[in-house]
Amino acid sequence: MNRIYDRVALIGLGLIASSMAHAIRRAGLAGEIVGTARSEETRETVRELGFCDKVVDSATQAVEGADLVVLAVPVGVMDEIAREIGPHLAQGTTVTDVGSVKRSVIDAVAPHIPEGVHFIPGHPLAGTEHSGPRSGFATLFDNRWCILLPGETSDPDALARLRAFWEGLGANVDEMDVDHHDLVLAVTSHCPHLIAYTMVGVADDLRRVTDSEVIKYSAAGFRDFTRIAASDPTMWRDVFLNNREATLEILGRFTEELFALQRAIRTGDGTLLFDYFTRTRAIRRGIIEAGQDTDAPDFGRGKTK
Amino acid sequence: MNRIYDRVALIGLGLIASSMAHAIRRAGLAGEIVGTARSEETRETVRELGFCDKVVDSATQAVEGADLVVLAVPVGVMDEIAREIGPHLAQGTTVTDVGSVKRSVIDAVAPHIPEGVHFIPGHPLAGTEHSGPRSGFATLFDNRWCILLPGETSDPDALARLRAFWEGLGANVDEMDVDHHDLVLAVTSHCPHLIAYTMVGVADDLRRVTDSEVIKYSAAGFRDFTRIAASDPTMWRDVFLNNREATLEILGRFTEELFALQRAIRTGDGTLLFDYFTRTRAIRRGIIEAGQDTDAPDFGRGKTK
Ligand SMILES: NC(=O)c1ccc[n+]([C@@H]2O[C@H](COP(=O)([O-])OP(=O)(O)OC[C@H]3O[C@@H](n4cnc5c(N)ncnc54)[C@H](OP(=O)(O)O)[C@@H]3O)[C@@H](O)[C@H]2O)c1
Ligand SMILES: NC(=O)c1ccc[n+]([C@@H]2O[C@H](COP(=O)([O-])OP(=O)(O)OC[C@H]3O[C@@H](n4cnc5c(N)ncnc54)[C@H](OP(=O)(O)O)[C@@H]3O)[C@@H](O)[C@H]2O)c1
C-alpha cells in the first residue's frame, strides 16, 4: 500500500497537474483524484482523458473532503483561488502549490489559509514547453528536484507526508529558503526564458532576415531558444511580474557581462573571449554528471524528418 | 556508382571533417579520403578510428592529387592553410571550406587560390556541442542545410559537382549572398551562442547562488543554454572575431528589446509581456513544420539517469 492521501484535489489541470495525476496513479499514492479547471473545455477534455476520478465545476467543490489540495494554476491566479477555497478547507488538510515563484505566492495564499490547515508551498523543477491537460505524462518528475518551502511553524507530520508524496511521484525533494529560491530560479529558469523570448523576438522582427530564413537555418543554435520561447505566455507573464526583483537583478548582471563580451568583440580581444568560453564548459560537465541532462549530441534529438 | 571525386582531402579532422568522412563512406562519394590535422595526437586518433584511407602529416601532402580539398579548420586558421597549400593545388581542383563565417574566410582564402582552381566556399548548418575526431557521425548532415556561396565567375560544372557531393552527404543545398549569410548566421547561430555563454557565465559568477545549485536545478530551462555554451572555445572565438559587424548589430537589437522587456517587468506591464511571448510561438511552429526540430517535449531527451 503506497497510499499517502485519501483524496487529492487538483486545482488547475494543465501540464503540471495532469503529470501529477498520471504519476499518482502509477504509484498508487491517492485513493481518489478530484480535479477542476477554469474552462468547461478543459474539464470536458479531462473527463475524456480520464486521469481524474472526478472532475468538478469549481474549486470549492474540488476541495470538499480532500486531505491534499494542490494549486496548479498560473502564479497570478493563486490569490483568487486561495480566497475562494479558504473558507471550505477542513481542519488537517494540507494545501500546497506548484507555482514557479514563491515569495509572492506565499504572500497571496497564506492569509486565506485557516488555522489548523497546513500550507506548505512547493515547486517541482520539471516542465516542458507544452501546456494543457493533454501534455502531461507520468515520468515528468522522475529524477527531477521538487523544492518544498515549509515555514518555521509547519507541522512536521504534514511535511513528512508531502515529502513522501513527491518522492512517490519520482522526484528528489529539497527544502529551501523562500527568497533564495526566487533568486536561484531567476538564474536557472526565469532569466534564460526571458533571454530566449527576446532573441526569438529579435529574429522575428528583423526586416532584412525573413522568418522563413530563420526557420530554415535554425539548426545552428537558434532552435534551442525557440523551444524555450514556445512556453505558455500566461504562465511566464505571471512569473516575471511576480519575481520582479530577482529577475531584474540577474538581468542587470547579464547585460553587464554581455557588454564586456561585446567590447571584446569590438576591440578584437580574442584571449578574453577564449577564456570566457572555456570557463562555461565546466558547468555543463557538472550538469551531465549530476544526471540532469544527457551527454548525447544535440540532446540525442531523434531525426526530425 | 555514386563516386563524385576521386580523392577528397580533409584539412582539419574535427567534428565536421570526421562527420563528412563517415558520410562520404556511407554514400561512396569518393575513391579515397586523405586527411590531416595540426597535432600528431589527432592524426594518430584518426589512424586508429580509420575513417580516412590515409592520414598525412601536412596540408601540402594532403592536397596532392586531390580533386576536392575541404578546409575544415577554425575560421582564424583558414588564411594560414590557404597560404600553405596554394602553390600545391593542381589545375581543376575544387577547394571548399566549412567555416561558420564567410566574408572573412573568402577574404583570407581567395588570394591564395591559383588561376584554374575552383574555390567555392560552403557552410553546412549542422553541428553539435562536441568537437574533435571522435565526435563525428555519418548522419550529421541529413536533412540539414548546406549553404554554398559561389562567386559570379564560379565554374558551373565544379559547382554542380560540389552540390551533388553535399546532397550525397545528406544535406539540402542552398546558395546565398556572402554578406547576407553572415547576417542570417549572426541571428540564427552566433548571437544565440554568445548569449548562452553569457548567461552561463553569470550563473557561474554569482556569489549568492552556488555552482552546485545551478547544476542541480538546471532542468528548469538553464541546461539548454549550457549545451550551447559547451561548444568549442577556439571555434567560437574565431567566429566572433570574424563576424564582428553583423554580430554587434544583432546584439544591439537584442539589448534594445531586452531593455524594453525589462522595463515592462519593472512597470508591471503584463500586456506587453503576454503579447511578446505569444508572438514567438509561431516561429517554433514553423521550425517543427519545416522538419528542423522535433516536437517531442524537451526535444525527446531520453531519461538522463
Ligand atoms: N510548465 C512548467 O514548465 C512549470 C514547471 C514548474 C511549475 N510550473 C507552475 O505550475 C503552474 C501550472 O503550470 P502549467 O504548466 O501546468 O500550466 P497550464 O498547462 O497552462 O495549465 C494551467 C491550468 O490552470 C487553470 N487555470 C487558469 N486560470 C484559472 C482560474 N482563474 N481558475 C481555475 N483554473 C485556472 C487552467 O484552466 P484552463 O485550461 O481552463 O484555462 C489550466 O488547467 C504555474 O503556476 C507554473 O508557474 C510550471
Ligand atoms: N562545430 C559546429 O557546430 C560547426 C558547424 C558548422 C561549421 N563549423 C565550422 O567548421 C570548422 C571546423 O569545426 P569543427 O567543429 O570540426 O572543429 P573541431 O572539432 O574543433 O576540429 C578542428 C580541427 O582543425 C584542426 N586544426 C586547428 N588548427 C589547425 C592548424 N593550424 N592547422 C591544421 N589543422 C588545424 C584541428 O586539429 P587538432 O585536433 O590537431 O587541433 C582539428 O582537427 C570551423 O571553421 C567551424 O567554424 C562548425
TrEMBL record, chains A, B:
A single BP term in Gene Ontology: tyrosine biosynthetic process
Spans traversing the lipid bilayer: none
EC primary class: oxidoreductase
GO MF entry, a single one: prephenate dehydrogenase (NADP+) activity
InterPro entries referenced in this protein's UniProt entry, alphabetically: 6-PGluconate_DH-like_C_sf, NAD(P)-bd_dom_sf, PDH_C, PDH_N, Preph/Arog_dehydrog, Prephen_DH
Keyword Metal-binding part of the UniProt annotation: no
Keywords of this entry: Amino-acid biosynthesis, Aromatic amino acid biosynthesis, NAD, Oxidoreductase, Tyrosine biosynthesis
Gene3D superfamilies (alphabetical): 6-phosphogluconate dehydrogenase C-terminal like domain, NAD(P)-binding Rossmann-like Domain
Boundaries of every Prephenate/arogenate dehydrogenase domain copy: 6-295
Listed Pfam families: PDH_C (PF20463), PDH_N (PF02153)
Catalytic reactions of this protein: prephenate + NAD(+) = 3-(4-hydroxyphenyl)pyruvate + CO2 + NADH
Pathway assignment: Amino-acid biosynthesis; L-tyrosine biosynthesis; (4-hydroxyphenyl)pyruvate from prephenate (NAD(+) route): step 1/1
EC number(s) from the headed UniProt entry: 1.3.1.12
PANTHER family, sorted: PREPHENATE DEHYDROGENASE, PREPHENATE DEHYDROGENASE [NADP(+)]
Family as reported in the entry's similarity comment: Belongs to the prephenate/arogenate dehydrogenase family.
Name of this protein: prephenate dehydrogenase
Organism: Silicimonas algicola
The organism's taxonomic lineage, starting at the top: Bacteria, Pseudomonadati, Pseudomonadota, Alphaproteobacteria, Rhodobacterales
